[in-house]
Design brief:
10-stranded mixed sheet, Rossmann fold, 10 strands, 13 helices, alpha/beta
Length: 350
């Protein structure tokens, strides 16, 4: 995650309550602006927080991990993989998954490494949070579940990971839904300074770069992450129960190590593993994504919400949507709009 430099405004671009923003979403589509044009099903409205649990939670060995994941929908349905970010977990999709399942999709929502019930198979494995490794975890999960190709969507870390899958393994990605657009990281570029006001949005990454930050996050992770939620989604009035349900995933024994390594690696302050250097070199080059894609922007994205900054990173069928009044956790704050984007992206691929 990166907090927008416009935080100091005290509110985001619009503060009108849009609780579930489906009917209000604003589209800037280069392919089509209306669901009917895309030829896909219309997802019915749902209030955020309608669902509080998943009916099916499973575990499976996949690559370096034993992965915990939620599953919904028919086992033979078109696969959809939904990826969360920091500081969130699978419950960001607790309302999205049943919407997609009711339309016949097989929905898989994994805990990323360092979250929830996902654990390392070996105590000797380096607790690595670099971007290519998180993407390889998803490839390993797909292999373990015998999923050859899926529509993939995500936000925050999940958006970056989904984009990496589409960029490096397009044969495994039928379509992409990416909140905040193109987030693939170039570590060298990340080391360039921003204007002072913009640097404010990176405060937590600088905190994580210190030993004090490691100790502070270890001791106060729930309070820290609740603060992040309120900053990046100022109009989302989530309940204590909603936060606490997700906060349980932060008790994963590897959570702090993965989070700290991820952000330090992005700033060039921590080394990755050499065996992934070739993949990272491809990612640092800013590969263009050719699979059918819908990008979503919200108030969190500030001036970048129009999507023009990354439009040339997507060469296939493409649509861009803007959700006014919604913060960073798009699938949890606007589940109908996110689910609709998944269905429409899948429609672009057919």
């Amino acid at each position: 995650m990166r907090l927008q430099a416009t935080l100091g405004r005290g509110r985001f671009l619009q503060t009108a309550a849009v609780a579930f923003a489906a009917a209000q979403l604003s589209s800037i589509d280069s392919v089509a602006a209306r669901v009917g044009d895309l030829g896909s099903a219309t997802i019915p409205p749902v209030a955020p927080g309608t669902h509080t649990s998943f009916s099916t939670l499973r575990q499976i060995d996949a690559g370096l991990l034993n992965v915990g994941y939620a599953e919904a929908g028919p086992a033979d349905g078109p696969p959809v993989i939904l990826l969360h970010g920091w500081p969130y977990d699978i419950y960001s999709y607790v309302d999205v998954a049943p919407l997609l399942a009711s339309n016949g999709y097989r929905v898989i929502v994994p805990y990323l490494r360092g979250y929830g019930s996902t654990t390392f198979l070996s105590s000797s494995t380096f607790r690595n949070g670099q971007q290519s490794v998180v993407a390889l975890d998803v490839i390993a999960l797909m292999d373990a579940l015998k999923i050859q190709r899926a529509t993939v969507g995500g936000f925050d870390w999940g958006s970056r990971t989904a984009a990496i899958l589409a960029a490096l393994w397009p044969e495994r990605v039928k379509a992409l839904v990416a909140v905040s657009g193109y987030l693939i990281t170039n570590v060298k570029a990340q080391q360039q300074p921003l204007p002072p006001k913009a640097e404010l949005g990176w405060w937590y990454q600088y905190y994580f770069s210190t030993q004090r930050g490691v100790l502070g996050y270890t001791e106060n992770r729930n309070d820290f992450n609740r603060l992040i939620w309120t900053i990046v989604s100022p109009t989302w009035h989530f309940s204590d129960a909603t936060f606490e349900r997700t906060a349980a995933s932060f008790q994963n024994p590897d959570h702090v190590a993965i989070v700290i390594h991820n952000y330090r690696w992005r700033l060039g302050l921590a080394q990755g593993e050499p065996k992934y250097d070739a993949l990272e070199a491809r990612l640092f080059a800013g590969p263009v994504i050719g699979v059918p894609t819908i990008t979503i922007a919200s108030d969190f994205d500030g001036p970048a919400a129009d999507g023009t900054a990354y439009r040339d990173k997507f060469s296939g069928k493409y649509a861009h949507r803007i959700l006014p009044g919604i913060g960073h956790d798009v699938p949890q704050e606007a589940p109908q709009a996110f689910a609709q984007a998944v269905v429409d992206a899948d429609g672009l691929a057919t």
